[in-house]
Amino acid sequence: MQIPADRLRNLAQAIFQRGGSDEGEATQVAERLIEANLFGHDSHGVGMVPAYVNGLQSGELNPGIDVTVEHDRGSFLLVNGNAGYGQVVAAATMELAIERAKELGVAVVGLKNRYHIGRVGAWGEMCAAAGFISIHYVNVFSSNSVVAPFGGSDSRFTTNPYCTALPARNGAEPIVLDMATSRVAMGKVRVAHNKGEQMMPDALIDSQGNPTNDPGVMYSEPKGALRTMGLHKGYGLAVICEALAGAFTGAGTFGPEHLSPGRIINNMLSVLIDPGAFGEREAFDDEIEKFTKWVKASPPAPGVDEVLVPGEPERKSRTERLQNGVPIDDITFEELLAAGEAVGLARDEAMRIIGN
Questions:
Q1: How far, in Å, CA of 221 to CA of 243, rounded?
Q2: What CATH number does residue 243 fall under?
Q3: 98-136 pLDDT tens trace
Q4: I want to staple 2 with a disulfide (CB 3.0 to 4.6 A). Which of 16, 122, 261, 325 is the partner?
Q5: Whether residues 36 and 175 fall in one domain
Q6: Which residues contact 176 (CB under 8 A, 6 or more apart)?
Q7: What is the pLDDT of residues 72-97, one digit of tens each?
Q8: Mind listing the pLDDT tens digit for each residue in 219-238?
Q9: Which residues contact 99 (CB under 8 A, 6 or more apart)?
Q10: Residue 160, CB half-sphere, CA atoms under 13 Å: how many?
């Protein structure tokens, strides 16, 4: 089914309010989730609402929580998210980081212990809109590990996202590289499983370490695992994300002590840089613009409409889905209704919000 984005947002907002958030917090979380859907990242969209409700019920997610600054050393800030909603906590932390970068030209900010941060690219875009280059390393503590190390046959860590965003001239769209270090995000496996679809090749292994396209291996015991993207290269980057987001911030690295039902705790190290620090900002903008035009001028390969730079596929998706609605499969929709019922939102009221 194709559901208008504003109706999905209203449903998610209603669920979060029933879950203990005030209207402002519920709106902020819901808007970020819908933004992920619009950008084509359904793995980080409203399909996460049931997991959030699970986090509320297990006590792993704390609504209405503010950030705490634990260390302030000028260009270095360490912030504790106190297991609050990642969409709210990360936005507040990026505001602190941007103000510090405006003052000093650079900011290195550790954000630890906040619930699922959502689409990491959103925070890169926030920094780019303020005029800064930003680099983000993320690790994850959850109810189970999901990604196997290169050469391994079982999971030992999670999808450990990485993001870099580059600001553009005069409000133009930024370049945003936002990716899991696994072949795909776990949420994309959930979406494929709910739709009854096979996964792409080289994304999964079964419990014996054999390649498989069946997303069901992540939902049966003994579980399979995701593979890292780019074989040993993605694995290496995942290790770096774990070290910088977990060890450097003092939040910890993934291990059995962090396994807990309902848990999706992210830690993130963000580095914000003034793009004019080594020269004129105008020169930086000129070079990015020139290189982008050069790359996009490559003749498209057979079956390809045009060459895109990082961030463009998401913006094209947003345009299409704002016009046609967000695709939601039947299982995900049923899970949304059940999540609402779990916090006291009656099914008929949820259907009224959706408009059915």
A1: 29
A2: 3.30.1370.60
A3: 999 999 999 999 999 999 999 999 999 999 999 999 999
A4: 325
A5: no
A6: 121, 124, 125, 128, 163, 164, 165, 166, 310, 311, 314
A7: 999 999 999 999 999 999 999 999 99
A8: 999 999 999 999 999 999 99
A9: none
A10: 30
